[in-house]
Amino acid sequence: MEAVPRMPMIWLDLKEAGEFAFNAAVKKSAVSVPRDFEGCSTLRKYLGQLHFLQSRIPMGQGQDAAVPVTWTEIFSGKAVTHEDIKYEQACVLYNLGALHSMLGAMDKRVSEECAAGAFTYLRDHFPHSYSVDMSHQILSLNINLMLGQAQECLLEKSMLDNRKSFLVARISAQVVDYYKEACRALENSDTASLLGKIQKDWKKLVQMKIYYFAAVAHLHMGKQAEEQQKFGERVIYFQSALDKLNEAIKLAKGQPETVQEALRFTMDVIGGKYNSAKKDNDFIYHEAVPALDTLQSVKGAPLVKALPVNPTDPVVTGPDIFAKLVPMAAHEASSLYSEEKAKLLRDVMAKIEAKNEVLDQFMDSMQLDPETVDNLDMYNHIPPVLMEKCAALSVRPDTVRNLVQSMQVLSGVFTDVEASLKEIRDLLQEDEAQERKLQELLGRVPPAPGSPPGLAEVSKECSKYLELHEKASFTNTELHRAMNLHLGNLRLLGGPLEQVRAALPSPALSEDDKQVLQNLKRILAKVQEMRDQRLSLEQQLREMIQKDDITTSLVTTDRSEMKKLFEEQLKKYDQLKVYLEQNLAAQENVLKALTDANVKYAAVRKALAEVEHKWNTTVQTLVASYEAYEDLMKKSQEGKDFYTDLEGKAAKLLERARAACQASEAQRQQLLERELKKQPPPRPTAPKPPLQKK
């Protein structure tokens, strides 16, 4: 796999700058940077100087020196203006992340961690209301994309370095985890509406990569099993890798040739591995092949992280050009306090994410959707697709009658044709019988006086018509069978709606079953309430941290008192932290209650699933009957046309058969008379002598 062609990566466009009352030369050099690492350095320097400027001059929103700042929003192309220098900082920081993503998508695959760091800092330290492209959802999506791509780069290097199979498998599994997080964001309706057309392309590529790197993970788990001489496990891992790769290939339609090359290369590797492993196990090792779900799942190894951003790091910002304007002590203290807030947020988020991961895995294993856990409401209504068919038949009340009449007419013509052909066949058979009788009478085959004109042709045409009739008879039988199959359904659809509703299956739940169902729904609602409360508390914490600016206090506080001030200021977050701790602690009890409720729900779930299957089958059958009507009418008309034509031909052939048979009979009579005339008269016999008396 070390020679596998590289997969393409997603990169982000840079925002375009508009109005900002800053030195024109400085602004130009900061927003029109070259697309290389020098450009990244320029953006970092400009960002740092903006922070230095902000710490000394009141240019924030609502402050005295605030000026309009305009940037173009990426997805809509609209100009967005805020009178806030932090908006300028946020846009520059976004461009820093976007430029790193662009460089990482090229051959220089070393920038994704930097991009993730820029977007993480932007998400955690700036308001999300500036513009759509810097909302919390979009930034979280960007972070997961960049981390996934950074882990993907690490995977490439690990395979080139021939690292141990198990480690490569874990690295690949973590790529899958990052991309799954990104995919969840892409599937979110709010995110999809923000991204617009690009959402489909990104989602398609990410979904394909999820299956592709899952295949790579199981390929290397199979290689590890091979190294451990676990030949049965090797077969199932390679089989799973092949299955997942086939899914990736299905999702790769429309992707560039580089993707197709990588998939073909990987298919050659995995396909060869699987075929060889299966053959060896079948003919040499004969080990039992375990089910995949009985083996330990591959846990991802996150070996990349969002590189932290320090906007005021003198190594990247260079000299502070505003150093003489404001005491740096206040700014330095503010930066330290910001780091304390960031640390607090990281600690809380680590706990939240750990609990969320457990919750997501648990809910995925349960396969319980609160919206459709019972589906009882759907049985109270006729589905729209069926209502549409009922409405269509209500304005065509003669549907069934027309179909029956059409089939009756077809049956009549069919019978007439069959009778004519039978009579012709009987005439021909009778003629043959008379010929045989003549032969027996004469004791020899009579000399042929010449066949009656048309008799052979009649026989030939009769055989042809009988063959056509026999073939059409099968079609006619099938048509009648289809009509009988759909006729009852058509009558039902054309009748009262109450009868249609009564014909649809519905669940018959006991009171105990209903109680089990209600209890499960109540606990599922509790799970959602816990999720919503957790998200709300997290958002409150983030907003509180973003708005927490103690610069004014820092200016009047002695350096020796800074630590004490920090501790006092951070106490404002204690209540929120308590609420979050309570929310996280409640999860274990909620999941235990859900487990118990799900066990009781198992029988009800099975019964509901069976009824739903019957309900769907019934609906599909009724719809199929409606859609079959036009086809039945068309085929019925075609049958009538065919048999009407055949009836005319059979009638004419019958007349010819009668005439030919009469002519044949006349010939036989003439031949018999001639044969009788040729025979000599009988000789007279001598009289017997009289008997002598004794």
- Report the sheet-strand fraction: under 5%
Q: What is the count of helical runs?
A: 20
Helix share of residues?
A: over 70%
Characterize the biggest β-sheet.
3 strands, antiparallel
Q: Mean of residue pLDDT?
A: 83
| Structural category | mainly alpha
Biased composition (Pro residues): 679-694
Coiled coil: 417-444, 520-547
Domain BRO1: 27-359
Keywords: Coiled coil, Cytoplasm, Endosome
Overview of this protein structure:
With 694 residues, this protein is mainly α. The chain has 20 helices and 3 strands. Among the domains are: 7-134, no CATH class; 136-303, alix/aip1 like domains (Serine Threonine Protein Phosphatase 5, Tetratricopeptide repeat, Alpha Horseshoe). It has helices spanning 24-31, 37-54, 85-105, 112-125, 136-160, 165-187, 189-195, 198-227, 231-251, 257-285, 314-317, 328-366, 384-394, 399-442, 455-494, 497-503, 511-547, 551-555, 562-570, 574-678, and strands spanning 17-20, 69-72, 79-82. It has a 3-stranded antiparallel beta sheet, with helices on one face. Residues 27-359 form the BRO1 domain. This is PTN23 phosphatase.
